[in-house]
Design brief:
Layout lengths: L5 E6 L2 E6 L9 H16 L5 E6 L4 E3 L4 H5 L3 H20 L4 E5 L2 E3 L1 H8 L2 E5 L3 E3 L13 H9 L1 H10 L3 E2 H6 L5 E3 L4 H13 L3 H14 L4 H16 L2 H11 L10
Parallel strand pairs: 2-3, 3-5, 4-6, 5-7, 6-8, 7-10
Antiparallel strand pairs: 1-2, 8-9
Helix pairs in contact: 1-3, 3-4, 5-6, 9-10
Length: 259
């Protein structure tokens, strides 16, 4: 399927999805619809085992939602836009395959919400981050108030949300909002390296890991342990478990089939 605002390449079990609305790649309703469709297709594609999400150019990953579109929407229209944005962010967050955000530039507002919905985040040293919504008389509507506080704690989240000020990649790293900071010229190579490593892991085990962490993180410890136990049992029942254990015994590299 062709897309107006997205590019997608698949190579060696890794899909690279690029949001392509230069110069700053803002998110409008059409982009959200396309993201919803492409992540559904990648979920169903057995060839794809890991996904990289990035923005075109060097200026921005995603510099927020499309303000020009938002300014012309009434309550009904903005609710529709907000619904599709939340659908997309939740789909990315709960996809059975790992998603890496390669943050090449500005990650503001909805763009930062999108990055936080990914499993892992690698940032260019030139990237900048912010939740600037309060300065526009609004608040984040794509899960930013919730995912951010779970990641950095409520006090820090309120600081970032209330002031809306921009901060750099190293501050994001200090706050555990990104996993790694690299020079811009190394960003996609590093993301590819991580994605290729993940693509060689047993797919069902990775799926169960993601389910256990995501679901368990939203409940109490005892409930989380029950979820973990069920996910462990599912992973243990796979052919890949047999292959992994046998390869260990035979001192060779396992070849996982995703079964």
């Amino acid at each position: 399927m062709s897309y107006e605002f997205l590019l997608c390449e698949i190579n060696k079990n890794v899909a690279v999805v690029t949001i392509n609305r230069p110069p700053v790649n803002p998110l409008n309703t059409k982009v959200f619809q396309e993201l919803n469709t492409i992540f559904g297709e990648l979920e169903a594609n057995d060839e794809v085992r890991a996904i990289i999400l990035t923005g075109s150019g060097e200026k921005a990953f995603v510099a927020g939602a499309d303000i020009n579109e938002m300014a012309n929407l009434g309550l009904v229209g903005i609710n529709k836009m907000n619904k599709i944005s939340r659908t997309v962010f939740s789909k990315v967050e709960n996809l059975t395959k790992p998603v890496i955000a390669a943050i090449n530039g500005l990650a503001l507002g909805g763009g930062l919400e999108l990055a936080l919905a990914c499993d892992l985040r690698i940032s260019s040293s030139k990237a900048k981050f912010a939740f600037p919504e309060v300065g526009l008389g609004i608040i984040p509507g794509g899960g930013g108030t919730q995912r951010l506080q779970k990641m950095v704690g409520q006090g820090v989240a309120k600081e970032l949300l209330y002031f809306g000020e921009m901060f750099d990649a190293y501050r994001a790293l200090e706050l555990n909002m990104v996993n790694k900071v690299v020079p811009l010229e190394d960003l996609l190579d590093t993301a590819q390296e991580w994605a290729l490593k993940l693509a060689q892991k047993p797919p069902v085990a990775l799926q169960m890991l993601k389910l256990a962490v995501n679901t368990g993180g939203n409940t109490d410890l005892e409930s989380g342990l029950i979820i973990e136990s069920a996910c462990f049992a599912n992973a243990f029942s796979t052919e890949d478990r047999k292959e992994g254990l046998q390869a260990f015994i035979e001192k060779r590299k396992p070849i996982f089939a995703g079964k």
